[in-house]
Amino acid sequence: MSTNSSSTHLMTEGNILKEILLFSVPLILGNLLQQFYNTFDSIIVGKFVGANALAAVGSSGSLIFLIISFAQGAAVGAGVIVSQYLGGQNRNGVQKAVHTSIAIALFLGVVMSILGVLVSRPLLLWMDTPKEVLPESIVYLKIYFAGTIFTVLYNMVSGILNAVGNSKRSLIYLAIASITNIVLDIVLVALLRMGIAGAAIATVFSQFISCVFSMHFLLKTNESYQVSLKKIRFHKMVCIRIIKVGLPAGIQNTVIAISNVLVQASVNGFGATSMAGFGAYLKVDGFNILPVMSISMAVTTFTGQNFGAGKLDRVKKGMNKTLWIGIIYTIVTGALILLFADPIMRLFTDDPGVVAYGKQAMHYFCPFYWLLSILHGLAGTIRGTGKSIPPMAVLLISLCLFRIFWIQLILPHYTTIDGIFVLYPISWAVGVVLMILYTIFGHWLYPVNHKNKFHQE
């Protein structure tokens, strides 16, 4: 694999729409690939192991996000700082940011792996996981969390590659991981009949593969973001900058993950069939959510580079074009999912109850994904300037506090699962209103002394 100079790409010049699209498309394809092999896990488990195993895989998603969400926030912080130094053409700053980021990932990866294995069973019990699903859920989670260090390290490396404009590289490694995961799913679950454990092993090994390939690239490249093992350490001032951006994002992710766990616990109260249906649909949901997050990451990098270069007008134009990209994408995909709702759900299982719950969720989610694209598009732009606290506050209020309020005070008045499904679009709408208000009235885009902060001194 080549490691020439073309592996760094600045978005501070040229057509804005073209730059954002060229950068975001590999991100979108990469996340879709990742979601595809996660979905393939559920399809194989549902077809060859059964509805309870499908419920176990589906209900694990919120807990997995809960454990690794803080590390994902750190990756966001690292990406913003790397992109800002790169935009300011500060090679020394890029080097310090990259090596500090890897050190943070290694530390968090070890902690997350140990913590995840230890808390799997207690968390599942706290969520009122049905007894018929509990044993398989525990097995899946413990195996998955044992390999969390690979996920955390890959996410950090991917954040670095995206920050320097090399999103195509992440796509290559995710493609390799996807193929590995699919092959192992077929071998371990369908052929060797290893059940839920086989699905978890396939996922962990595929993450290990993507981690190895991405780290190998950083070690071999000749670019400013090259990694040297002996230089991996915490650079105090750079670490503080990463934490200032990443900590709010990490807290935001963690608290939102807690609210998602509460939502999942509410779903669990409706039984294993509802768990399986909702869990299966969440795999489909990822084909909308992950591209939205990819577009948000793209505009964060675009903003970081242009903000670091002092090109504030490009930041505003990039935000507007990003919003249109997200809105158009989510309207089209939401309509397609609704159109093919029944055959999509029957990919996972032939159980009519499970299929019915999944289709019910679709009718509440699909018409409103455009709200989520606006919410994350604005948040991604503002975060790229280094202002991560305001987006954190908005997302915590709408996707966490409001949902907890709803679960505690509104949901008891519902006798069906509709009370949970309708919560999602309403909470997205609350977030959009708050984020638009901050974008208009907040002082998030203002001139700074870029020469001293991001450029070579």
Automatic annotation (TrEMBL):
Keywords: Cell membrane, Membrane, Transmembrane, Transmembrane helix, Transport. It is found in: Cell membrane. The chain crosses the membrane at residues 20-37, 63-86, 98-119, 139-164, 171-192, 198-219, 240-267, 287-310, 322-341, 361-380, 392-411, 423-446. It is a multi-pass membrane protein. Its main location: membrane. GO terms for molecular function: antiporter activity; xenobiotic transmembrane transporter activity. Pfam families: MatE (PF01554). CDD domains: MATE_yoeA_like. This is MATE family efflux transporter. It comes from Mogibacterium kristiansenii.
